[in-house]
Automatic annotation (TrEMBL):
Any one GO biological process: glycogen biosynthetic process
Keywords carried by this UniProt record: Glycogen biosynthesis, Glycosyltransferase, Transferase
Domain Starch synthase catalytic per the UniProt entry, residue ranges: 2-235
Protein name: Glycogen synthase
Domain Glycosyl transferase family: residue ranges: 285-413
Amino acid sequence: MKVLSVSSEVFPLIKTGGLADVSGALPIALQAFEVETKTLLPGYPAVLKVIRDPVVRLELPDLLGEPATVLEVQHEGLDLLILDAPAYYDRPGGPYVDPLGKDYPDNWRRFAALSLAASEIAAGLLPGWRPDLVHTHDWQAALTSVYMRYYPTPELPSVLTIHNIAFQGQFGSEIFPGLRLPAHAFATDSIEYYGTVGFLKGGLQTAHAITTVSPTYADEILTPEFGMGLEGVIASHIDNLHGIVNGIDTDVWNPATDPVVHTHYGATTLKNREENRRSIAEFFHLDNDNAPIFCVISRLTWQKGMDIVANVADEIVAMGGKLVVLGSGEAALEGALLAAAARHPGRIGVSIGYNEPMSHLMQAGCDAIIIPSRFEPCGLTQLYGLRYGCVPIVARTGGLNDTVIDANHAALAAKVATGIQFSPVTETGMLQAIRRAMHFYADRKLWTQLQKQGMKSDVSWEKSAERYAALYSSLVSKGM
Ligand code: ADP
């Protein structure tokens, strides 16, 4: 089966979050199920800089008013189609924001262009290759199935994956003419959303199947609390809604071979983590003692519960714990965490910024990772934690609920516990969880048991890739 995957970020070329990890790893995992994927992504400067010897595959002289070229290149096991459109993507800053962190005002056009190019490829414009199915990710690629509905595209099945329904790509109706869709596309069964243009909404209405990145999140987005206004639309497609939990790339994330981890280890050599723990203490200027090191690796936002972390930091120290934070995000939260570090030298360390190697080393050296998200479609850092023996302490929501087994009495007795879950996601809830962790940590045997059980969890892509492959097959065999 041939699949066109469309994503605004793909690891290892460009990443701002979990979406990149998924769109970079799933195509490789799908190879075992005879799914051949080409992945279309924008030609940001960071992408064009690292690829070698691309081949020009398609010229699009008027992609929503700007010229574009589709380049094809193989990169680290991925077959990439790169949309080289300098007017849209050749700028400093990130994929979505300028160097000052502000959304580009023409994001609607930049990602409509990506989607339109995808629908052209779906229609067979790429010489010698036409997909059997199109898989789009998040609002940035969601217009693909909208264009496929209204443009003269042969009927092809499409799957839309929601990685986070909080990001919907909603714009004023004045942009509608610039999308070059027929007037009747501005309708509730398509992209019209309370008088505005909704990219994700349009994708949900036009894709043949919707997936979310965990079963619990699939249930949650049917409720007003988590559906962010789209719960009604999702409910109308409930028969085509699937929750498939993310896996991780177990080659990239392997404590026995990870090149940035100083001392390699496995479940039977957990003692080797000590060296990595010392490196973490050094990097964050922590006292080198036996107190547990709790870590946070995250975007610093309200969604991720980072205000809660800042508010309980003093109490974590008072309980005898240490805390290290790696992340960037909202200025107020960065400031609150830096202030906590300043109040507790030797006990709290904060590093503001994005640091991929350090994120690996922290999983390999810290004792536990705290993930207090108010909502979490899947979450990846708890999966890395499981794989690295860094015990996850997680909010009971979304994918965190599906992937971590709470160390309650029954689970401990059955030796199946892999971490700690807490609810409600409040300061009190989190402090209770930390207290439980401190209690378990004091019992070395019990803690090692938790680590080992976590390391046994199947966090690979295999089972989930099989589910995606089965979904693709059922859509293709139905004719959609
Ligand atoms: P989200 O996509 O909502 O940000 P996920 O848990 O799904 O959350 O994925 C976050 C990804 O980004 C993980 O791979 C995590 O290790 C990584 N990450 C987050 N913040 C940082 C950081 N400051 N430095 C390095 N990696 C980070």
